[in-house]
Amino acid sequence: MAEAARQEKEHFGIEKNRRPVAMGVGAAFQQMIILFVGIIIGFIARRLHILDDASCKAVTKVVMSITLPCFIVSSGFSADRSASGTEIFVYFLASLACYAAAYLIGSALSRLPLFPRSDRRLCSFMTTFGNTGFIGLPVIGALFGTEAVFYATVFNLPFNFLVFSIGIFLVSDESSIRNIKPRSFVNACLVASVAAIALYLTTFQVPAIVQTCFDTLGSATVPLAMLITGASLGKETPKDVFANSGLYLVSLAKVALVPAVSLAILSLVVQNPLLIKIGVLLMAMPVAANATLLCLQYGGNERLASRGVFLSTLLSVGTIPLLVYLIG
């Protein structure tokens, strides 16, 4: 009886959740402060001309093409296999529903008179796509352990495809949409996500030295990502960021309304409480850091995007620990 009860707790994530519950709100707040300090350092480095546009783009390419994919693949090595294949598939579908809801929220907000017509699609982008790679996966790993990063990767799989398809459309101006190429839909993070799922579904044992290589490279993701997020904001002034009332509305929707709606969706179709918490926290992440880079590449309003990244990240320092408390 005792053993059966223990197995049931493990299946539904109860035993695994002891760690984050013990950490509490204070530890979640501490984790966000650590990440935010990295952003501030990146901001200062930009102001001191240690980082410029060229170096930021180069480091971003390294993160998105090398360190973050390694971080994702390494999660497949240590993933706990208590969730069934059916649960994983349902979780993936639930993720799609959450992203659809986030898009609808952004579309509704963007039609308010606070936003010019040219920025409406970008507003939808900002509520739909969060900083799940740069901030989300590291936060999930810190709160729930490395094995939880795999489940975050499953939930994040739609992001890796949608942000380079629908996302590009949302940030592009009319003339740039014609230049979108099908190969933009395939990227290193998407390939890494598929590889992590394959590792989960098979019993293939990866040699320890290979695992160590991926772990070591992946560990560089967090500090590099925070520096680049801060550096992307180095050209902005406080007045530019805080004077836009519409931006407050979009940012609050991203870090508060979107996760609330996602919690309702996930609670309806997902039984494992750990998976629910992971999904809600990922949907609560601030605006995706690559919004600025996509705007630069496809002719969008990169200044509005970078302001949205900063303001929503600042708000998330308070909202994410609060969310951990509410769902913990």
UniProtKB/TrEMBL annotation:
Q: Where in or outside the cell is it found? A: Cell membrane
Keyword field: Cell membrane, Membrane, Transmembrane, Transmembrane helix, Transport
What's a single GO BP term from this record?
Answer: transmembrane transport
* One Gene Ontology CC term in the entry: plasma membrane
**Has keyword Transport?**
yes
Annotated membrane topology is:
Multi-pass membrane protein
Instruction: Answer whether the UniProt record assigns the keyword Cell membrane to this protein.
Output: yes
**Superkingdom assignment:** Bacteria
Residue ranges spanning the membrane: these are 28-46, 89-110, 122-144, 150-172, 184-202, 208-234, 246-268, 274-296, 308-327
Extract the InterPro entries matched here: Mem_transp_PIN-like, Na+/solute_symporter_sf
Report the sequence similarity comment from the record: Belongs to the auxin efflux carrier (TC 2.A.69) family.
PANTHER family given for it? AUXIN EFFLUX CARRIER FAMILY PROTEIN, SLR1864 PROTEIN
Query: Per its record, how is this protein called by name?
Result: AEC family transporter
